[in-house]
């Protein structure tokens, strides 16, 4: 994926040879490099590991006293190796495109919300083939509450590499069909 030039986010992207982070030299270099930098990025898949989960935080609460949602997640070998592999490819692509100076991605450490990962939030009420593995069935029907159908990216068990919206729409159509064709005729668990 090639991200274009943007007024604010691209400003300040300069060669590593520029040491100044503020002041006249930094400003001059930022203007010079403004339309001379680019980003090469890729989107990869994260596998749905058993250890990754949400639960209610035992410590932190919202202003009305309800517990906040706690997220437990980390990268595993699959993601780290995928990043290392793609990092080398992206450096190669950049040089082939004529880049004079390449700032490589430093690699994955532990999961860190302060570092941009994606705006594709998925999971939380994940789909699974049995109630012990997830929250909804393949018709996005809640395993414990048969008249509750959950639509949206929360039913994804993992973050695939592609944009999620077409799959959300496809699952919504499938749920609508299941409700009309099966559930309304015979209310109860569909799977
Ligand atoms: C900046 C950005 C760029 C993106 N670009 C793309 C893209 O190019 N392609 C792509 O496929 N995806 C993109 N996405 C991801 C995509 O927008 C989401 O995957 C998608 O919107 C998820 O749909 P959803 O229905 O699961 O959740 P949402 O669209 O977030 O809908 C959830 C709704 O629930 C409401 N809600 C929350 N809590 C409550 C409550 N207690 N009571 C009542 N209502 C509540 C919210 O107000 C919201 O309207 C992007 C996301 C962002 C943030």
Rounded Rg: 22 Å
**Major sheet size, sense and barrel closure:** 2 strands, antiparallel
SSE order, one letter for each helix or strand: EHEEEHH
Q: How does the helix and strand content classify structurally?
A: alpha+beta
Q: Which stretches are poorly predicted, pLDDT < 50 over at least 5 residues?
A: none
**Small-molecule components bound:** flavin-adenine dinucleotide
Mean pLDDT: 91
Work out the helix count.
3
The end-to-end span amounts to 39 Å
Query: How much beta, percentage-wise?
Result: 5-15%
Quick one: overall form?
A: elongated
Strands of the biggest beta sheet: in what spatial order?
Answer: 1-2
By DSSP, the count of extended strands is 4
User: Helical proportion?
Assistant: 25-40%
Salient structural properties:
single chain; about 190 residues; alpha+beta; two-stranded antiparallel ribbon; binds flavin-adenine dinucleotide
